[in-house]
Amino acid sequence: MKVVIEGAGEVGSHLAKMLRSDGHAVTVIDDDGARLSRLSGYADVETIEGTPSSLEVLERAEVAEADLYIAVYPFVPQEVNLMGAILAKKLGAKRVIARVGDEEMLRSESRRLLREVGIDQVIYPERIAADEIVDALANNLSSDNMDFAHGKLKISVFRLDENSSLPDMRLSEFVAMNPPEDLQKFRIIAVSRSDSTIIPKLDTRFRFGDLVFTISKEEGEECLRRFFGDTRVRTGAAMIMGGTPTAEMLARSLDAQGIRVKIIDKDRERCIALSERLPDSILIVNGDGRNSDFLLEESIGEFDTFIALTNKDESNILSCVAAEKLGIASSIAAVENIEYIRLAEEMGVDQVINRKLITASRILKYTLSSKARFVKYMAGTNAEVMEYFVEAGCPVTKAPLKDISFPENAIVGGIIRGNEAEIAVGNTQIHPGDRVVVFSMGASAKAVDKLFR
To answer: In whole angstroms, what is the distance from residue 350 CA to residue 235 CA?
Structure first.
C-alpha cells in the first residue's frame, strides 16, 4: 500500500515508522527540514520538503497514486490538515484522514459535510484518549485491558511484583499446576520485559517486573485472580490533574455517568475558563497536583482514581506515584514520550495513555483488510491486538491452527462463535462467521491480515 503522510511531527513520524515496518511504501511531506531529517534518521521513508497545500508538492509525492493520505501536520490550525486532505482526495488519493482539534468536527452533521468534500475520516486524539479512559473506568479496569463481545473475552495485563509467585517459574510449570478445565478458560499470550515483547513458549521463564498479557473468558477471571490478584477498581470519584482538552472532555463524560469529578490545574485563568464551561457538579481547584500536601488538603483519600493529564510526562508520572503512596486505588497517566511508557509502568502507574499509539491504532485499521474490525496498540509494547471477522474461503479456515503457517510473532488468543467464547489452542479450527482475537507484534500484522483475506 502507498501511504502519504502530511506532517513529520510526533504523530506523523510515529505513523511513518509503524507503517514502514509493516511493509508499506511511505512518503512524508513537511516544510520543516529538521523534522524530516530526524525522521530519516530512524525510518526508511521517502521525505519531501514543502508545504502540503502546494499542488506541486503533492504531485511530487505522487498523491494521485496514494491508497491512504493522512493529514497530521503539527502545531497548525486544523484547517491546514483539512485543506491538505481535501486537495489529496481531489488529486486521486483513494482514502484520506485528517486530524482535527475541535470536538465540534466529530458531530454527525460535521462528518457528513466533510465526507461530501472528500474527507473519509477525521481523528481527534484528545477525544480518543478521553474515550479510552472512560471505557477503562466503566469496566473497572486498573491496567491496559480490553473487552470483546461485551466481556465474553478479555485481554488483561498484569505486572509481576514482589507479591507474585510466577517469577523464576517456567510457562510449562505454570501450565502443569492448573487443572485442564481451567486452561480452557484463560491463556498467557505474551510477556513484555525491558524493551521487548515475546510470545512465550513452554520453556520461557517469568521474571520479576514482567508485564504478562492474558486472554480469558468471563469464567477465567477468577482463575487469573488466584495468581495475579484482583485488579478491578470501581470508580465512584475521580481526581484529574491538568485542565487540558482531554481532561475537559473526560470530566464531562464521567460527570454524565454520575462519577464525582475534581479537576486540579495550576493555571488560574484555565480554571476559570473550565468552571464556566463545565457543569457545576464538577469541582475545579487551582493548585499544584504534584504537591502531596496539597493532594491531602484536597481529600485525595476520598477518590478512587487519580488521572494525570497535563502536557508534561514527568509531572504526570510522578504525581501518579505520589497519589498511589497516598492510598489512591488506581492511577492513569498521559505519557506522550513512548520511551517513558515502560518507566511509568515500572514506577507503579496502573495505566498509561499515549495519544500517538491510540491514534495509530485507529489509522492502522485502514491499512488492513475490511475484515479487521478492531485494532489497538498495547502501551509499553510493540504489539497490537486485532479482531477479525472470518468469511468463507479465507486461508485461516483451511486447517486447525497448529497446521497453519501463522506468523511467528503473532498468536490467536480466542474465538467468539455466536454467543460463545473459547480460548484458542493448537487443535482449534476457525470457522466462517467467527470473530477472532489476534495478538501481533511488529511487521507480523501484514502477514496476519493475509490469512483473513
So the answer is: 14
What's the rounded Cα separation, in Å, for the pair 71 and 51? Answer: 12
Longest CA span, the chain: 66
Beta bridge pairs of residue 439: 385, 411
Helix H or strand E encompassing 25: strand 25-30
User: Strands, DSSP E only, in 135-274?
Assistant: 146-148, 153-159, 186-193, 196-198, 211-217, 237-241, 260-265
Q: Phi-psi region for residue 380, left (φ > 0), alpha (ψ -120 to 50) or beta?
A: left
Residues 6+ apart with CB under 8 A from 237: 259, 260, 261, 262, 302, 303, 304, 305
Give me the residues paired with residue 430 across strands: none
Closest Cα partner for 366 from 101, 127, 97? 97
Task: Return the exposure string of 14-52: e unless at least 16 CB atoms fall within 10 Å of the residue's CB, then b.
Answer: bbbbbbbbbebbbbbbbbeeebbeebeeebebbbbbeeb
Give the chain's end-to-end CA distance (angstroms, integer). Answer: 15
pTM attached to this predicted model: 0.78
| Domains, the chain | 2-123 (3.40.50.720), 233-349 (3.40.50.720), 361-451 (3.30.70.1450)
**Residue pLDDT tens, the chain, 453 long:** 899 999 999 889 988 988 887 788 999 999 999 999 999 998 899 999 999 889 999 999 999 999 999 999 988 889 999 999 999 999 999 999 999 988 888 888 888 999 999 999 999 989 999 998 988 787 665 455 677 877 788 888 888 877 778 889 999 999 999 888 988 999 999 898 877 888 899 999 999 888 888 999 988 888 887 787 766 678 899 999 999 999 999 999 999 999 999 999 999 999 999 999 999 999 999 999 889 999 999 999 999 999 999 999 999 999 999 999 999 989 999 998 888 888 898 888 888 998 888 888 778 778 776 667 767 776 666 678 888 999 998 999 999 999 998 888 889 999 999 888 999 999 999 999 999 999 887 668 788 888 998
d(CA 84, CA 42): 25
CA–CA gap between residue 371 and residue 145 (Å, rounded): 22
**Beta-sheet strands, E only, within 44-94:** 46-49, 68-71
